[in-house]
Amino acid sequence: MSTTTQQPEHAEANLTVGGLFGYMTLGMLFGIIFVQSEVVSWFRIQEMFRFESFHMYGIIGSAVVVAMIGVQAIKYFDIRTLDGEPIRINPKQWSSYRYWVGGIMFGLGWALLGACPGPIFALIGGGYSVMLVALLSAIAGTWVYGALRPHLPH
Amino acid sequence: MIEMLSQTWPWYVAGPLIGLIVPALLIAGGRMFGISANLRHACAATIPGRVAFFQYDWKKSGLWNIVFAVGIVLGGVIATTVLAHPDPEIGISAGARAQLEGVGITDFTGLLPSDLFSWSGLASLPGFLMIVVGGFLVGFGARYAGGCTSGHAISGLADLQGPSLIAVIGFFIGGLFVTHLILPLIL
């Protein structure tokens, strides 16, 4: 697999100060939802992996349903961005190895840390300063993946 | 109003609001919701080295997402101050609490067990494994799988992507393994 196929999108819209402020506002609302619904809580993640409450499954499940309706509506009605650009959603490259192995590795980390990347940021804001170490460690993990990538089976 | 918002938000409020982020970002600028990409942008921005995976214009493709992540941090500040939960303990189910007490968790205050997720906890073996090793696996695994909970479990499934379903099943295999076989050993 060539490296270019994995380059992120290069859309240039909204890189104005106003546009970036909009993204920050969306992120802020998202962080508030994350903390107030307690999906950032280690206890909630443990409760989920022990099948002791519907809370997390309800959140993920209803989020997927609402997001799915939104995405399918955008495709069906050919809705454009605020700047009038067509919306393209690139399909994930089909293979299974990387999704199984990467997915399981991520899951091991998710249950150990009790947080995935979004909650790491929210917890840092919530004053759990030791989560800065988790963030640096996750960046290190990403870096090591990038360095090993040419040698890893995908 | 503040009092009501300070309580635990039920799943049927929080879940749909999280789901709305996906079409909101697409309409705002054709952006696909996925937070772990920021870890890659952080590498590309600071220490790309000679790694091909980090040679791209991170400002062009990732600045919006880094700003979004900064917003999440600010949201965390607001949620834990202005909207701070009135009870010291969040109300997890009695079953989960009993199981966690069974593996030695005693402090149920706040969002994390503070004896493990603190600077002193970091120096202990279980704290180190959970924070440092856990964080490393989250970063490595997310990029290997091409996304995290947001990119695969929410955006990917919403777009009916087969690879995302495999990744999410993988997330749960790994999570169940650690929860039921590893945590009882290290805690």
Report on this model:
Chain A: It comes from Longimonas halophila. Chain A: InterPro entries: Sulf_transp_TsuA/YedE. Chain A: Keywords: Membrane, Transmembrane, Transmembrane helix. The complex is a heterodimer of chains A (154) and B (187). Chain A is mostly helical and 154 residues long. Chain A has a domain at 17-52 and 91-151. Chain A contains six helices and no strands. Chain A is globular. With 187 residues, chain B is an all-alpha fold. Chain B has two domains: 1-84, no CATH class; 116-187. Chain B is built from nine helices and no strands. The mean pLDDT of chain B is 95. The chains are: A mainly alpha (154), B mainly alpha (187). Chains A and B meet through helix 1, helix 2, helix 3, helix 4 and helix 5 of A and helix 2, helix 3, helix 4, helix 5 and helix 6 of B.
Low-pLDDT ranges of chain B: none
Mean pLDDT of chain A: 91
How does the major sheet of chain B shape up? Answer: none
- Based on secondary structure, the structural category of chain A is mainly alpha
- Counted up, domains of chain B total 2
- The proportion of strand residues of chain B reads under 5%
Largest sheet of chain A: none
Transmembrane segments (chain A): 20-43, 55-77, 97-116, 128-148
Pfam families (chain A): Sulf_transp
Protein name (chain A): Transporter
Keywords (chain A): Membrane, Transmembrane, Transmembrane helix
